[in-house]
Amino acid sequence: MSDWWYRNIVEPGKLPLLLALVSFVLSFLVTRIITRMIRAGRGPFGNVKTGDLHIHHVVPGIVLTVIGGFGAVAAGQHSFGSLVSAVLFGLGAGLVLDEFALILHLDDVYWSEAGRKSVEVVVLTAALVALVLGGFLPFGVNELSPEERQNRVAVVLNTALNFFFALVALGKGKPRVALIGTVVPFVALFGAVRLARPASPWSKLFYKRRPRTRARAGLRAFRHDRRWAGPSRRFQDLVGGRPDPDP
Fold first, then answer.
1. Strand ranges in the chain using DSSP code E only, listed in sequence order
2. How many CB atoms lie within 10 A of CB 49?
3. CA 65 to CA 190: how far, in whole Å?
4. 28, 95, 184, 242: which sits with the fewest CB atoms below 10 Å from its CB?
């Protein structure tokens, strides 16, 4: 076990990334537990206020992220400082992305339907970091052999091709697929070759005079949403708490 740990985590320099990921997930989960307790009126916790000003936890999150980020840049890769900086960065990032919806809407939508975006972004971020930690590199560079990596032309072409697939998937209204596809190229290719979402820029541009394709895209999107919307919402409610009902 110790040999595996050193060979796969310590030697490649992945320990800071692992610590950042663990800190990020724990920061988010602990924050959600505390906010749900505050919402329910349980426990010793409460909102932090200065007079009438409610200080959201994104504020200390930004401070920790800045300290951790600059600390990581200043510290050596295998130094103790890099490990501490990674933990601080992960803690701060968890606090910041837990209020991603607030930053996006510039409004306190934490317990509204719009607040679900925070949970979704946190899950996507954790998944992407875990993939990178597992050995996947952005835009499919990990699929190149050592000899091919020495060939700069092959690396550039491979990166450009995978970036193109991810961009097409994004244009087809599939941001999650595009984001994961930057790390796992096959996912980007899958999203690029399939039909676009009805309201996507790709659909408006290329399906405008193709009613059959537009109808097929709408039917496929309807079936996909009907199949996955329920499980997705239940998972978000389990992790982040159920939003308040609309007034």
1. 49-50, 53-54
2. 9
3. 34
4. 242
How many Å apart are CA 101 and CA 236, to the nearest integer? 14
Question: Rounded to the nearest 5°, which phi and psi values hold at 50?
Answer: -120, 100
Radius of gyration over every alpha carbon of the chain, rounded to an integer in angstroms: 21
DSSP state, 29?
A: H
Identify the pLDDT of residue 142. 52
The 10s digit of each residue's pLDDT in 53-93 is 889 999 999 999 999 999 988 887 778 888 999 999 999 99
Average confidence score pLDDT of the chain: 85
196-221 per-residue burial string, b: 16 or more CB within 10 A, e: under 16: bbbebebbeeebeeeeeebeebbeeb
- CA–CA gap between residue 33 and residue 30 (Å, rounded): 5
Neighbours of 108 (CB within 10 A): 13
The first and second tokens of residue 21, run together, are: 């990921």
pLDDT of residue 150: 56
Q: Where are the domains of the chain?
A: 1-135
| Token pair belonging to 65 | 């992220």
Which tokens go with 61? 């999150």
